[in-house]
Amino acid sequence: MRIGGQRSLEAQRAAMVAGQLRGRGVRDERVLKAMGEVPRELFVPGWRRSQAYADEALPIEAGQTISQPYIVARMTELLDVRPGDRVLEIGTGSGYQAAILAKLGAEVTTIERQEDLIAQARGRLQELGLADAVVVRAGDGSAGVPEEAPWPRIIVTAAAPTIPMALREQLDPDGGRMVIPVGPRDRQELLVVIRQGNEWVERSDGPCVFVPLIGSEGFPHDA
Ligand code: SAH
To answer: Which residue, 35, 116, 153, 205, is most buried by CB atoms nearer than 10 A?
Structure first.
């Protein structure tokens, strides 16, 4: 369908799912369905709406970014979320990743350090009817949320210099799983960490680039 000479946002979303996700090996049908349902255009600044389905990360407010659709889908697939799973997300940003997790039936707690992003993400989640499934908190997520640990699933959407010890320890010892980009500021590896008792098995899903995790177990603020 074309509106004003442009493909409609629905058509762009369907093309993104087919080309950028399915075409590049995202297999989980539940993830593909969620990515096909959540209107990404709601999560980008108004003047970037026409780029909402571009194959790239986009700048959002407060100097942050909304990740590329492929990386959101891939991280979600690697997290392996079942309906009812409790998920801790570090780095709410636009709220888009939290919305995808909520669509999959997860109970999401997401933490953001930039106050202005928090209000905006809450508003968007409310608009989509997902507010009951997502708690948006302010704070330094590199320290996790110990009072609600253990967490069966943790997803970090900012680059950490190393895996924060607090997050390691808050991961459920009974097969808890964390997806986290780890490495220097300009280039990271997307790690999947699975905990069994006091063993943490890590593997890399490949290179990636994220904005830095700033905090007690992240990068220093002014570096
Ligand atoms: N998941 C987001 C993308 C986030 S970009 C989305 O779907 O749009 C990374 C976010 O992490 C930024 O908004 C940044 O402010 C936030 N961040 C960085 N360090 C943080 C910390 N220690 N605690 C919480 N949020 C942090």
So the answer is: 35
